[in-house]
Amino acid sequence: MSGNIRGLLGLVRQLPPKEIQSRVLLRLWMARSQLFARELQACAASIDDLQNDIPAHDLANRYALILLRASYAIQRDDARAVEAIRELLSAVPEAADASMIGGHNNILTWLHLRHGEYAEGRRIQREAPPLLVNGAPLLGTAGGALQGEGLVGLSYALEGDVVESERCYRDVLFKAERNGVACHEANCFATACLGEILYELNDPAGAIRLLETKVDLLERISIPDSVLRALTALSDASWICGHELDSLAYLQRLEEYASNLSLDRLLAAGLAGLARRRLQRGEFEKAKSDLARLVAIDTRRPARSDAFALDEIGLLSGRAHRDRRSRRGRRSAGPTDCAEPGSRSPAGRRPSRHAEGLGRRSARSPGGGEEFSVLRAASGASTRSCPEHSGRQCADRSLDSKTFEGRTARSPACLLR
Questions:
Q1: Residue 341: pLDDT over 80
Q2: CA within 20 to 30 Å of 216's CA: 146, 397, 409, 413, which one?
Q3: Are 272 and 319 in contact (CB under 8 A)?
Q4: Residue 2: what pLDDT?
Q5: Where on the phi/psi map is residue 137: left (φ > 0), alpha (ψ -120 to 50), or beta?
């Protein structure tokens, strides 16, 4: 268990099927290889079969199966399924090895981030004992220490602490690159998140340089959150740099990825982005089609979606409707003194993760101001420095009082609880 799992998974797939079926441990490895290859239906079937075949006294392999079920749920962006086995995840057996303990830590950290419990997610990582294999640190694999450090960086980003999150991501990348292929998962996760941070720091060209050569690898081995962050950052950065067709292509790639894996939250993000950009390009019929598909997702409230995902889908749908109304208003009212969304000004960007994080946190917190925080995140009413006008601030002014009142009345109940 050096962390270089990929070669072992390849070897398992070369074994005769009869030999694999004869041993529980080999069947577990085959299920892991199916998950790694994104053969999700086959992986689900393998998990179901193993659930019935692993004896109750085999605590180590039964716990390995629990971790596999949770990892499968994360690849399906299904936090509800992870929450459903949270008690089982917490019952770590004495026979658990470093990779199991690390997997437990990272899965629970991911779950806390989905619930907006960022400090608790960091606490799990910081209080965890060192993960050692034959006396050496376990850095690679999804259960390795570097994946946990990357999740800590994400917790800071979701809280709006860009400086601390960038420090975490760069530290993970430095360590991952030193350890090569064994740390590909952590490398990809940190790369995707750092690319998003570079975009937020008004370095769209830097984000493109970092991400564009790694998109294929990201899609193959990283979790949906990483793919979403990488492709939306590439799309937004390309738009800011004047590469509109590239921007659309990355959103279409996100749409295809999400459709192939039935990931509703990611599909909603892709459709919302496409609708917005097509409105800005004057492609109104295409935008209307994207918006109709987005509304359909929001209306049916996908069964696998937790409160976080439903909030995000609702925000995306509401913002897409606002963009459509705003675009209609611009066509009738003429130019404004703030940059048009189709220009290279950051006024055309999506809201920062800082705004999104505050919005989701406010949606879950008691007290006043929840509606405004959530609606501000949904509307993209953020203020940024324009690269071509140093020191000038361009604000998205589309969230006026009438829009605020209208969105409050139409906001999904989950956003206002």
A1: no
A2: 146
A3: yes
A4: 43
A5: beta
Res. 306 pLDDT band, cuts 50 70 90: low
User: What six digits make up the tokens of 132?
Assistant: 């050692």
Closest CA to 316 of 372, 270, 280, 384: 270
| Nearest CA among 39, 23, 30, 37 for reference residue 8 | 30
**In whole angstroms, how large is the CA radius of gyration of the chain?**
22
What would the pLDDT profile of 54-80 be if each residue is shown by its tens digit?
A: 999 999 999 999 999 999 999 999 999
Residue 84: half-sphere exposure toward Cβ, Cα within 13 Å: 11
Give CA–CA dist 94/97, Å, rounded: 8
Q: Strand pairing partners for 383?
A: 395
350 pLDDT exceeds 90?
Answer: no
Q: How far apart, in whole angstroms, are the C-alpha atoms of residue 241 and residue 198?
A: 14
Strands (E), 88-182: 132-133, 136-137
Residue 376 DSSP SS3: helix
Phi, psi for 383 (deg, rounded to 5): -115, 130
Rounded CA-CA distance 250/166 in Å is: 23
| CA distances to 71, 191, 197, 219, 383 from 258, in Å | 17, 20, 23, 10, 30
pLDDT score of 325: 63
